[in-house]
Amino acid sequence: MALYCAISNEVPEVPVVSPCSGAVFERRIIEKYIIENGVDPISGKELRIEDLIEIKTPAIVKPKPPSATSIPATLKSMQDEWDALMLHTFTQRQQLQTARQELSHALYQHDAACRVIARLTKEVTAAREALATLKPQAGIVAPQPAHAVESGAGAGGAVPVGMSAEVVSRLQERATALTQERKRRGRTVPEGLVGPDQIRSFLTLASHPGLHSASVPGILALDINPSDHSRLLTGGNDRNATVFNKDTEQVVAILKGHTKKVTRVIYHPDEDTVITASPDHTIRVWNVPTSQTTVLLRSHDGPVTGLSLHPTGDYVLSTSTDQHWAFSDIRTGALLTKVSDASGVSLTTAQFHPDGLIFGTGTENSQVKIWDLKEQSNVANFPGHMGPVTSISFSENGYYLATAAEDACVKLWDLRKLKNFKTIQLEEGYAIKELCFDQSGTYLAIAGTDVRVYLCRQWQELKVFNEHTASATGVRFGKNAQYLASTSMDRTLKLYGIDLE
Fold first, then answer.
1. Of 82, 317, 350, 442, which sits with the fewest C-beta atoms within 10 Å of its C-beta?
2. Are 18 and 26 in contact (CB under 8 A)?
3. pLDDT digits (tens, 9 = 90+) for 269-305
4. Adjacency order of strands within the sheet including 483-488
C-alpha cells in the first residue's frame, strides 16, 4: 500500500508520521511547515520536528549532488518550488474553510438580528398607533344625558306632514337674500383667497390616523365647520362620527349611536351641531358639547345615501336606496315631504343649490336630476354618465354643477343652459368618491384614487396628492382655500397647505 503525503498528496521520499494527528508527511515539507507555523497542519496542535516519527522504507540510492547548472539541479529547484506551492495551497484551503465557518456564523447572527429588528419595529409602530389614538382624546368632554326626538316609531315609520305656507315662505325669503348676497360677492375676489400658484405649492402638513378605530379601518365622510374652520367632522366604518380640532390636534367629541357605518356627515354652519347618516336607515342630529343625539330621523326604508343641509339651517335633504328623497325638519324631527323618483331606481347622492330652492340627486342608473323643492317636481335631467353617480356639487356662483360617477369622469353642467360644457376624463379605473367646490367657487377638488385640485373656468389641474395609501373618500377646502383636508380608507385624515416653517 502506497503512502501519500497529507499536504502534497504525493508519495513521500522520506515519510514521517505526526504523533498529533497520525498523518503521513514528506519530511522536508512538514519540517518547513513546522518551522513556519509550529503546529500540526491537520490537528492544529503544537508540533516539533523532534516529535516526528520516521517510517522505515527501503533505502533509495540518491545520486551525488549535481551542479547548479545540471538538469538534476534544475529538477531539484523545481521540486523545492513544488513543495512551497503545496504548502501554500494547503494553507489556503485551511483559511478558506475557516472563512466559510465565520461567514456562516455571521449570516446566522445577521438573520437573528433582522428578526429582532422586525419585531421591535412592529412593536414601535403599534405603540405609536396606540399613542396617536390616545393623544387626541384628551380633549373629549364627558357625554351628558340628552333627550332625543324621534320622527317615527320604527324604520320608515315617519309620516310626511307636508310643507306649510310658512315653511315655503321661509325658503323663498332665504333664497332671495342669498341670491342678492352672492351677486354682491361675485363682483370681487374674496379677500385672503389662496392663489393657484400657492395651491401648487401645497404640502402635506399633518396626518391623523387616530380618529377612528383601527379594528374597522376606514373614514367614509368629511365636513368642515363653515364658521370655525379649525373643526372637522368625520364619519367612519367603526359606526362613529368624530369632531376633531386641527389646531389643537384634539378630538372634541366622539358621537356613538349608529348601528352601521357612518357614510354622510354635515357640520351645521351656525351651531355646534352635526348631522350624520348611515345605512342603518337613520339620520341623527347631534349636540357636540354633550355628544348626544338630539333628533333621530327615520325618514327612509333603506340605507341613507345622500345628505344636504338647507341654507336656512333648519331642514335637511336626504336620499336613499328606497328610491325616495325626503325633506325633514331637524328642530322638531318632522318629515315634511317624501317624494319617489319616477324612474324607480335607487338614489345615490343629494346636494342643495346655494339658494336652497332647487337641489340635485344622483341615481344608480347614471342620471343626474334637478328638483324644484317647493313644487316637489323633477325640472331637469342631465344624462351622460356611464355608471352610478357618486357625488354632485354646486358651485357657489350658482351657475355650475359638477357631477362624478363610476365612469372615471367629472362633468360640468351650466344650469342656465342646462347642458354639459366640460368633461374631465380621468384615467381608466379611477374611482371618484367625492368632489366639492371651495366656498368661492374658484377651485374644484376631487377625491378618489388620489386627491386632485382644479382651477375653475380654465379647468386646469393644479395639484395631485398621492399621500393616502388607500382610496380617498372625502375632500373639503378650508376658509379661503388656505388648506385642504382629505380622508381615506387608510384611516387617516390628511391636511395640506403651505408650509410656513
1. 82
2. no
3. 999 999 999 999 999 999 999 999 999 999 999 999 9
4. 203-208, 493-497, 483-488, 472-477
Per the CB < 8 A criterion, the answer to whether 146 and 294 are in contact is yes
Q: How far apart are CA 326 and CA 306, in angstroms?
A: 10
Of residues 310, 436, 314, 354, the one with CA closest to residue 179: 354
Cell numbers linked to 42: 491537520
What is the reported pTM? 0.71
The half-sphere exposure of 214 on its side-chain side, counting CA atoms within 13 A, is 13
C-alpha cell at 208: 391623523
User: Rounded distance, CA 446 to CA 433, Å?
Assistant: 8
CA pair distance 325, 337, nearest whole angstrom: 8
Cell output for 281? 336607515
Question: d(Cα 432, Cα 450) in Å, to the nearest integer?
Answer: 9
Query: Buried (b) or exposed (e) across 189-218, using 16+ Cβ within 10 A?
Result: ebeebbeeeebeebebbeebbbbbeeeebb
Q: Give me the residues paired with residue 362 across strands.
A: 349, 368
pLDDT in tens, 4-53: 898 888 888 899 999 999 999 999 999 999 998 899 998 889 999 999 99
Residue 173 CB: number of other CB atoms within 10 A?
11
Burial class (CB in 10 A: 0-12, 13-18, 19+), 427: exposed
Q: Which three cell numbers stand for residue 382?
A: 342631465
- Residue 252 CB contacts under 8 Å (≥ 6 apart), including other chains: 139, 140, 141, 231, 243, 244, 245, 288
Query: Measured between alpha carbons, how far is 255 from 241 in angstroms, rounded to an integer?
Result: 5
374 C-beta neighbours (distance < 10 Å), count = 13
Q: Which helix (H) or strand (E) holds 400?
A: strand 400-405
- Averaged confidence pLDDT in the chain: 87
Q: Is residue 452 a contact partner of residue 436, using CB atoms and an 8 Å limit?
A: no
Contact between 440 and 190 (Cβ < 8 Å): yes
Q: How far is CA 313 from CA 174, 185, 220, in A?
A: 10, 21, 23
For residue 361, what are the β-bridge partners?
350, 369
Angle at 455 between CA 410 and CA 439, to 5 degrees: 90
Residue type, 410: V
Cell match 385640485: residue? 453
